[in-house]
């Protein structure tokens, strides 16, 4: 049975800003996709290998998979983020450290939600650039950039959680 304290967290300006940037970025992703859909050729790149080269093609309607998946992930993480007492933590959650640990964990989730939208947005943008002849694949920089965008915030927030266990 989960005996962790349940706390209603108040959003700070940073939290509100991250939420707004996340939702706006999601809207931009959908706008970019919808605005360019009509002009896309019938066959577009649908998959890229680890070096950023196109390795699969498909119908242009596949471009909608990216914003749909992004939206599902974003909304799902938003709902999950309302229940920080169910997250996994690197320490025992007590009444004394719950506020700090929950605040830190929910902020990490907000950053990662934004990162997910940005990564999928880059893929949509580069796919559109590819079909317009302005790019060739995602680029060799894509995979290292993606890994950095995911793991640097995670390391930062996990270190913050471990530093303030009590």
From TrEMBL:
Segments traversing the membrane: 20-38, 63-80, 111-128, 140-158
Keywords attached to this entry: Membrane, Transmembrane, Transmembrane helix
Pfam families reported for this sequence: DUF1648
Domain DUF1648: 26-70
Protein name: DUF1648 domain-containing protein
